[in-house]
Design goal:
- The complex is a heterotrimer of chains A (232), B (102) and C (559).
- With 232 residues, chain A is an all-alpha fold.
- The N and C termini of chain A lie far apart (71 Å).
- The relative contact order of chain A is 0.17.
- The C terminus of chain B is likely disordered.
- The chains are: A mainly alpha (232), B mainly alpha (102), C mainly alpha (559).
- At the A-B interface, α1, α3, α5 and α6 of A face α1, α2 and α3 of B.
């Protein structure tokens, strides 16, 4: 099969310090990292996808209950959170942009800004969750909505809405926490000058992850918070 | 990424950012108006548009290989298969039985 | 090549060769060099060890099941214990042997070699995948030690969420964790095959083994996350009372089944596709002919992967899904048989007018073709809604999937191990014993599982700990077969280990096979190739003249 051979380790060939030995060049390494990260995001699409499937099934089954239950979510807080995440996506994109123009300190600034915005998101989510606890809207034995539309059968069915609410936003929040952790590590490495215009794959990959988490929220917000919003 | 012109890519990022914020506002406004069945269509339509903008520009798919775009598309297509065929079951069934009694 | 090799002699160090040539096995010694390796070949060996251990555990449960079923009464174990036995047999075999099996062992070892790369795209993720596999295994083992699970490997709600008092969550979490191992492997393969092929290695010059593993990896990436979230939902319902599937709240237990089978049906293609890839290689090598209809077989792999995602509801025909979607699933399930059948035809046409040598790997390949065909045909029978209604949850189903998974996947796995063992270890194994094992496996397998088709058709339900006395004869035959099958599995374990110490050196290419993996030494050096190969022709370029010449020369008796 092989009739001639190429020796890619010819003496004198210059290697970027971040080039891993099994790759031939930085471009191959970058394209592999990007493709690998996207494949991981595909798994995340299907992972959240199972929850979206359950959501569609049950919203189709009892649309009125879902709408009534949705009215208990705070649109203002949800909207602010959506805006916060969109801002964080901008700062994330700008962190990578900073690497492309070799501005080390700017990378760190934008990563920290992203972390800060992500933390604001999580803070608002905590407020929302606490509110749910206080209003007995957590599914289980303590579930007791103070809402005439959510009594009896409808009340039972609304537990499914709230279960989905907590699981979907909870899983999303968990992803954000992990993302913040990763960004914190990258901020430290960026400060140390690890990334430049020629190599910043980890920033790109984390950026892809962060934007994906933003996209999940872009769907969660209208699907959870805005059902039948005109009838509030 | 955008052909290595930092100013151009900065402008694109800011433009997309503004579009996303406007989209968010639009989602809320439209949701508070009663459009019947179209409410769901509009909500999903705006969400999909926002997602596409994030994917194309923030996630650089606009400037990546076709394979990357295909991968992203494949993921969403597969989710559509999961939801779509599952719903063929539920739509064909009739109402899920409510809780007896209580 | 016309080596006539007598495998009976032990290794004799040769004065001419001096010290052993440097390869991946002797590149470094010590536990650390293995447990912290990034070499895909060493990671494959790590997987080989753990996968074999889990296979032994799963077989142990099978043994107990078959012992219980020797008599119609339930007299060996209690019914509760019996439930745990078949559940743990299923969980261990499916998630810890069949799904990782060929990809993690043969795939990890061979994918970079076959495409001319130095390693997989992400070596550290590869090592991580093994550790994650072990961690998941530990969770499951912990559950087993504490009494196991009794829900069936399918974890159906509401039994798993509400009524079972066994270790559902820990076992399920074990599977959840191992799922990530699977995902990492699949992701690694896809990126590697796209981005790291040697110069000249175009898509249509790839061995069919690679096409199979690519298709498998697509399934892994798209399907596994769905069972992951399903497991989390079961755990959430059991632990936190977030009742998504709870009928008391208006939830639907069948939704669990949709989400579960959306992965678990494609999972069976994860189990069979890599084995099909092995068979393509074996058939080409031992008929010394290119695989007939290469492109069709390559596309059939992708076709199986895609269609495999559209048929999951055929597991739920009697569960309460709507008759409309059942019809859709029935038709699609028949369609998915087509690419599989195409492969069987093409392998058969490859054999036609080939120079066939019945070495051990070829025996397994031939066994696969026959048994997979039987299993596949019964699959089409089951796709027929009207028939499935009667045989669902009977031994007909059990026989069907064991024909595919044991008669198919395991035969391919063993055939592959026997074919590539010289490449992996640099050693030869005893020819007679290996052929005997293949025969024992074939005979034992058929004796175990063919009676089960009859039992199922006659109405014996599956997962039952006792049965009407008129079914005893068939059950006894089945248990007898299982004993023979067990011996057939034990022998390779013994002689493979034996060969590592006492086997004769194999030389670089004992089979005279064609493929990039055979162009490097056996065992290969750590970086696979001393210089990067450049590919100029397609796979399976066996020399027709050589084929003609070989018929008049002594047959190679390598194994």
């Amino acid at each position: 099969m092989a009739s001639t051979t190429i020796d890619t380790h010819a003496p004198g060939a210059a290697h970027h310090p971040a080039l891993q030995h099994h790759f031939d060049n930085m471009e191959q390494q970058k394209e592999s990292a990007t493709l690998g990260m996207w494949l991981f995001l595909v798994t995340e699409i299907m992972f959240f996808g199972g929850l979206f499937t359950a959501y569609v099934v049950y919203r189709h089954a009892f649309p009125g209950v879902f709408a009534a239950a949705s009215h208990h979510l705070d649109v203002t807080l949800g909207g602010i959170n959506t805006a916060v995440l969109i801002c964080s996506s901008l700062t994330m994109a700008l962190a990578i942009w900073s690497a492309q123009i070799n501005r080390r300190k700017l990378i760190v600034f934008f990563l920290l800004a992203t972390i800060a915005l992500g933390s604001v998101f999580l803070g608002i989510k905590t407020v929302e969750y606490r509110d749910k606890f206080h209003h007995h809207l957590v599914p289980g034995t303590s579930f007791a909505p103070d809402d005439p539309h959510l009594q009896g059968v409808a009340g039972q069915q609304s537990q499914i809405f709230f279960a989905l609410y907590f699981i979907m936003t909870g899983l999303h929040a968990l992803h954000m926490i992990i993302g913040i952790g990763v960004l914190a590590v990258l901020a430290v490495l960026s400060w140390k000058g690890r990334y430049d215009a020629h190599y910043h794959n980890p920033l790109e990959c984390s950026g892809l992850y962060w934007h994906f988490v933003d996209i999940v929220w872009i769907f969660l917000f209208p699907l959870l918070y805005l059902i039948g919003a005109h009838a509030r | 990424m955008a052909h290595h012109d930092p100013k151009r890519s900065l402008l694109i990022y800011v433009a997309v950012f503004l579009a996303l914020l406007i989209g968010t506002g639009a989602t809320v406004v439209v949701a508070k108006t009663d459009l019947g069945v179209l409410n769901d269509v509009a909500a999903l339509g705006i969400a999909v548009t926002k997602a596409v903008l994030v994917i194309l520009f923030f996630m650089h798919v606009r400037y990546s290989t076709r394979l990357t775009a295909l991968t992203a598309l494949g993921g969403f297509l597969w989710l559509a298969i999961l939801i779509g065929i599952t719903m063929i079951d539920y739509v064909g069934r009739g109402a899920i039985m409510p809780v007896p009694g209580k | 090549m016309n080596t006539t090799v007598d495998t009976a002699e032990p290794v004799v160090p040769s004065p001419e060769t001096g010290s052993e040539p440097r390869n991946y096995l002797n590149a470094a010694y010590g536990l650390r060099s293995w447990l912290l390796t990034r070499d895909h070949k060493r990671i494959a060996i790590l997987y080989l060890i753990s996968v074999t251990a889990f296979f032994a555990l799963g077989s142990f449960f099978a043994l107990l099941i078959r012992l219980e079923l020797l008599t119609p009464e339930g007299d060996l174990v209690s019914p509760d214990t019996y439930n745990r036995l078949f559940t743990m047999h299923g969980i261990v075999m499916v998630f810890f042997f069949l799904i990782p099996g060929i990809p993690a062992v043969l795939g990890n070892f061979l994918v970079p070699l076959m495409i001319g790369a130095k390693d997989l795209a992400f070596p550290r993720i590869n090592l991580a995948s093994w550790y994650i596999y072990c961690l998941g295994g530990l969770f499951t083992l912990w559950s087993i030690v504490h009494g196991g699970v009794d829900t069936g490997w399918t974890f159906y709600t509401p039994f798993s969420t509400h009524y079972s008092n066994t270790y559902v969550i820990s076992a399920a979490l074990g599977i959840f964790i191992t799922g990530f191992s699977s995902i990492f492997t699949g992701l690694n393969f896809i990126v590697t095959i796209h981005r790291m092929r040697a110069p000249g290695m175009t898509w249509f010059r790839l061995p069919l083994f690679i096409w199979s593993h690519y298709a498998t990896s697509l399934i892994i990436v798209l399907g596994t996350p769905v069972i992951a979230i399903t497991i989390l939902l079961v755990a959430a319902e059991k632990l936190l009372h977030l009742g998504i599937f709870d009928p008391a709240l208006g939830g639907d237990p069948v939704l669990f089944q949709h989400l579960f089978w959306f992965y678990s049906h494609p999972a069976v293609y994860i189990m069979i596709l890599p084995s099909m890839g092995v068979i393509s290689e074996l058939v080409a090598a031992f008929a010394r002919k290119p695989v007939f209809g290469y492109k069709v077989v390559a596309f059939a792999s992708i076709g199986i992967a895609v269609l495999g995602f559209l048929v999951w509801g055929h597991h739920m025909f009697v569960a309460g899904e709507s008759v409309y979607v059942a019809t859709v699933f029935s038709v699609l399930s028949m369609l998915v048989a087509i690419p599989s059948a195409v492969k069987v035809f093409n392998w058969t046409f490859t054999l036609y007018q080939g120079s066939i040598s019945l070495q051990t790997p070829m025996l397994y390949a031939l066994g696969f073709i026959g048994l997979f065909t039987l299993g596949g045909l019964t699959g089409v029978m089951l796709a027929t809604l009207g028939l499935d209604v009667h045989v669902h949850d009977t031994y007909f189903i059990v026989a069907h999937f064991h024909y595919i998974m044991v008669g198919g996947t395991i035969m391919g796995y063993l055939g592959g191990l026997h074919y590539w063992w010289p490449k992996i270890s640099g050693k030869l194994y005893p020819a007679f014993l290996s052929r005997l094992s293949a025969l024992l496996v074939f005979v034992g397998f058929n004796l175990t599982f063919f009676p089960q088709f009859i039992l199922g058709y006659l109405g014996m339900p599956r997962r039952y700990w006792s049965y009407p006395p008129e079914f005893q004869v068939l059950n006894v035959l089945s248990t007898a077969g299982a004993s023979i099958l067990g011996v057939g599995y034990l022998l390779p374990l013994c002689y493979f280990i034996w060969s590592m110490r006492y086997g004769k050196n194999s030389g670089d290419n004992p089979w005279g096979a064609v493929g990039l993996e055979w162009d490097t030494s056996s065992p290969p050096p750590t970086e696979n190739f001393l210089t990067t190969p450049v590919v100029t022709h397609g796979p399976y370029e066996y020399n027709p003249k050589e084929v003609h010449d070989r018929t008049s020369q002594p047959e190679a008796r390598v194994g």
